[in-house]
Amino acid sequence: MLSLDANIGKEEKEIFFEKLRGFVVSHENSLKDVLQTFDTNRLGEGTVWDAMKDTVSIDLQSTQNQTTVADTLGRTKLHNGLFFRMAMLFPSLVLEMKSLTEECYDLFIPPLAMFSEYNADDEDDGDDCSDAKSNADTAAALAAQKSDERAQKGLGRLMTLLSDIWHWVDRVKTMVTTVIRNFAALYSRAHAKDNYQPYTKVHFPLVWHALVDLIGALVALEEVVMEHETLRQGLRVYRKMLQQIIRHKDKFEADVVILEQFGKLMNKVEADLLDDGMLERLVSLQYDSAELEVNVSYNPVFYEEFSRMFSGIILTVGESLCTPREGEGRRKFMGLLGLHYLQFTIFKEKFRNDPSAQRKVSSDLFELHRKVPVIYINGDVLLKPAQWMARRMPAALKAVVKDPVKEAMISIKTECVRTAADFLPRLNFFSTIVTIWAAQMQSTYATDRVHSKALVTTLTQLMQRGIFFAQDISRMTKHMIAIHQAADMALTVPLVDGIAQAVEMLHMIRSAFHNKYSMLGASFHLIVQSHSFTMQKQLHNCYQRLNDTLQNASEAVTDQHSAIGQAMALLNKGQTLQNLLCLDVVLSVAFQRDDCYFQAKDYEDAMNTFGTLTRICNFQKLVRAATDCDFLYWQREGLIPIFFRRLYANPGRSEYLPYLISALHDCRPTILSSRHVATPTQLLDNYIKFVRDTFTDEIIRPLRTDVENDLRLYTHAVVLGQPFRKLERSSKDLSRFTRLPSFRFFNESIRIADLVEDYLDAQFYNLNALMTNDWKTYEEMRNIALERYGLRVVEGFLPGSIVDQGLDVLVITENIQFFVANYTYNLNEQLFVQRPSVTDAKNLHTLHIRHVANSIRTHGSGIMNTTVNYVYKCLLKKLAIVSQFLYDDHVKSRLMKDAKHFNAHKDTCEGLYPLQRAEKYNTEMRKLGVAEDGRTFLDQFRQLVSEVGNALGYMRMVRSGGLRAIADAAVFIPAMDAIPHLEKKVNPKAVREGEEFKDDDEDLLLAVEEEEEEEEEIKASEATVHSCRVVDKVIHHMNKKLAQGSDYFYMLQEAIAKKLKDPEKYGHLKHFAMIVPSICISHVEYMVRQKEQLVKKNKDGLFTDDGFGLGCVFLLCLFGVLDNFESLHWFESVQKHYSTKLQEMSASMAANKEKEKKNKKKSPNDDNEDDDIKTMQLTFAMAEYALKEYQGLERCFTSCLVFFQRRIPEEEEEEEEEEED
């Protein structure tokens, strides 16, 4: 009872846990449904793979550790030894032939096709030809020499490949000989009554198809070599080089014997490979073997089997050509050509006795040519079947066609016209059905076990349809390019658009397969098992029927029974390549025979299921081959730019751009297979650069420009309210490009929106930095870019202006010529004030040091160097005018006269230049003419000198503003005199910039090291140490700038003085010292008038113009005439003149006052004397005012001299003192 109760409890427990598990699974599925419903971005997450982002892939091809055919067949030998030998022999031969065929197409043909492609580095190899003449003959000779050098080097690197091809051809000869002899041995009258007799009625189409593929690979390889003129040129040049080495063996360290042997090897390679001899040597082999007792040429049974299988393959290929189920029909067509040539050679006597048989076969092949007049091989190599047959079998072909070459060209032209007419309609048809197929593929998801059968059926249909669609589109596209190339006709733009659309559809199919790899990988074993089980059921019915008649059956029935049993056993294994080949052979034993027990329907059902199973097992390889677009590499310069240009013209197709880019990746294996260059990766880099440049030129650059223009036009029309700027918008929706997700572009991942955003970031920042007032406009443009194009343009983060921002230094610097003419300078306050005469505004602009500091904080310290450059250019222009004025004869002659007069009467004048002389010069200059505003030439020259001083004052202000900006930033440092060394805090061994390691720090380092040994300390990261080092460097430079600054005046003086060293050219500038008194008089008179206007109601006068004094001192120092000017003692002369004048006027005024008092006593009503006194007082005031202006000007001169007296650094002073000691 206890055990029974325990069992009951156990069952209840299992039932409870089963219900609990069911609840959990159901709840999990419901949560997934809710998640997918509300989060569309994660819909299908975990089941959809992304071909653009996945770094790994899945290989669903079944493999086994036991790879031999004998291991695959297992214990068949124990039951039927003869059947085991047959089932083992032919799959082994097919496996080897398939391996040789793939080796040819994958390893030999691509590098040969790439032989004409060279790196840029290889083109620059060789001797330096810079001394060569530039005429056309020399250029052509150099080009030929370069071509020979490249061909020679390329062939040298390609010799190993040619050697491999030579050995491959030998293996092909051996394999074809083995197959032919085995067939001849099997299909022979000698086996009419022995154990092999049942197998003489069996046909092995798999072996014949493999033989056709192998011979087709040989024909394709031979055609590539024949059409490769560069390869032949390289061989000729290489042979000449060997001959030169052998002829001058003393100059080269080489073994002559080895070279001679190598030369013979090259001759052998050329004879066997390059002289159209591969197939010729294959068909000329001796297939009859007396030693092996094999009769091939005179074996009627084998001839009938050969003819029957050949005709069957022709019929199969002919029915499949230009249909969705063509498969590898065009390659088989090449193989049929070679096999027919082999048949014609082996059975030459038979065909000679029966010309109708030869004519029939040639006629059948030529009918295939009418369907496919051109076969694409690789690169630019095409096979024209009619011309090939005319070259190989001219007599047999002429029995069918009188003029094969003419007929071939007519067929090519006709096919070209037909293909061009049918291409676009068929492409539109495929576009519709492929889109439907892709939607069905994406909407198919894994289900529960109840609906697994429906899932298997759906996936099988979708996978096969996808393969057929891809094969048909790829075949149609390659044929379109090949037939136009053969007909020498250009592709029209609609056809190029069609090719681009076809390429995009191919990779859309590949991407659809890749996206469902998660589900396909999980369901692949189920699909294979399902079709294996279906085929097992079909074979089991046949097996049961054979069991009923097995007791009294013949050997043929027994073999069929064994074959079906073996086939069912193979279906229970993993469907590897060896297993599928063995299965095909045993099915041939069961069904492909003359005395077959089964009906045709049984064979068709089994073979249809087997064909589906084969396609499912190899679907990855088939999809990859069908969607391969490496042919675009050979048409890159003609097609790729048009692809991008036309795609940009139609943004509605922008979602296909990732597929187009992915198609351009397919040529990577072909490029990297190159053997004639030292670095194949350089070829790939060149190709990637070409595609990237084309992509940028045709899509990115126009897109950036159009987006920017659209944003600006929309902003002007809507935001700024300027409808007159509104233009008609383009009908293109450019947002389709900017909203594309990221996709793979060779070795990187790009997103078009990022590229456009980077461009707009730079444009908006740079333009906004120039015009800071437009910040609101650019902010609106950023918002519009986000709304209309999904572009997130980053903020400029330009510092905003403050209340006293004032004028912008950057704008002033750009308009320095205008600024120095319209502003006046105050030396003491370092202030610029706008001239009232140049503006109608009530307020005047001013520029102060704080304004400059604000601008430097806004734009950065880099504008200081820019300012110096602009001032330098401005001064050069002003100095040119100064030089021109002083060079004038009227000016120069008078100045020379005054200088001569002063030197002659210096003693009389007590060494003082008389004021009257300068005033007389001004009077004479006025006689030369007056401008419309009343200014003389001398007044204009004085204004020019003031502008020179204003430019220098502006540069001084910028320097002071920079120091102020640094000082404002230094407030965040606790103490400039005790700056901490931050890097030393995190790295005690660090040494501050500008100082050496001190001995006093040794104890500190030792203490730190002891602490590190005793306990572990948290070490600062490298980034922290680097950050501290950067901060220390910034503080160090800030302290250095505050302490020293920059002597811009001396730098400018030195830079300009270098240009004025020629005394003959610039000797007239020495007269500037003599004109300074005259312009000083003009300046004083001008300032007196301006200050008088200040007290009037209009207030349009000036109160300062220190730029004149600064300009005079700068020019005196620059021209080296400061001593000459000081020898005039001009300001002492002015002081003496006005002092004497004021004393005389004071005495005169005092005498007049005494006289007035006396006269008033006599005649109190006399007003004339009062007027005279007022006049004298006014004259005295004006003279006193002029004297003050001269005294102010003298102080300005004295102050400005400080700027141009270079201070000697303390270190140089110490060195000079040491030298004196």
Describe this structure in words.
The chain has a 3-stranded antiparallel beta sheet. Among the domains are: 631-789; 809-967 and 1049-1157 and 1169-1202, no CATH class. Helix 4 packs across helix 22, helix 25 runs parallel beside helix 28 and helix 38 (937-969) packs across helix 44 (1072-1094). The protein is built from 49 helices and 7 strands. It is mostly helical and 1221 residues long.
Q: Helicity range of the residues?
A: over 70%
Structural class by SSE content: mainly alpha
Beta strands, count: 7
Mean pLDDT: 80
Using the CA coordinates, give the radius of gyration: 50 Å
Strand order of the largest sheet: 5-6-7
Count up the helices: 49
Largest sheet: 3 strands, antiparallel
Strand content: under 5%
Enumerate the spans where pLDDT stays under 50 for 5 or more consecutive residues: 1-8, 39-46, 120-134, 994-1018, 1207-1221
Roughly how many Å apart are the termini? 126 Å
Overall geometric form = elongated
